[in-house]
Amino acid sequence: MMKRIAVLASGNGSNLQAIIEATESGVIRDGTVALVVSDRTNAYALERARKKNIAASYFSPHKYSSREEYDRGLVTYLERRQIDLVVLAGFMRLLTPYFVLIFQHRILNIHPALLPSFPGEHGVAEALAYGVKVTGCTVHFVDEGVDTGPIILQEAVHVYNDDTSESLHSRIHAVEHRLYPKAIDLVLRDKVTIKGRRCIIDEG
Length: 204
Ligand code: GRF
What we know:
Layout: E1 3-8, H1 14-25, E2 31-38, H2 44-51, E3 55-58, H3 67-80, E4 85-88, H4 97-102, E5 107-111, H5 123-130, E6 134-141, E7 151-158, H6 165-188, E8 192-195, E9 198-201
Helix pairs in contact: 1-6
This protein binds 5-O-phosphono-beta-D-ribofuranosylamine.
């Protein structure tokens, strides 16, 4: 049975695009993107979804009195549509413990740095400013913290002398577009077992 993925995105949605294409090409074998939700009305991610005839909804933060109320509304919406896996792709809101509990071990995120280094919103710029020679990206399960959940996959990206945040982020993006679909495929096929902080991957 095809599992139903909801992608939550606030911006451009290039990872969303890569995930949709991976479901079409068979890189993601057991899943389909059933819907896309954004907290920003003009997120290009919504446009990308509509172009692929995928249900796309703007979930306005202004309609709710608190973060938890927002998440309660979102959970109800996702449950009604029988979502199996929630995939954050540039979603700029921190999920509340309520949301995380309901979808425990069924929420993924991608972060543009090698966690636990450089968590938070400015992972690329902070890695560059720190002077690291190697950074990268991380796919992890989402827990209540900021980029703290168990790590599923990571891949390194070298930093060049003449890198800017933009040039570095664009090389990281290219890796993300390959790594995120691979991680989603592994999770949907139950190839990832969480043991404490560690994810054990069955590559077979
Ligand atoms: C990605 O770099 C991802 O790591 C971070 O937000 C960015 C989203 O980019 N969480 P896009 O909207 O998928 O192009």
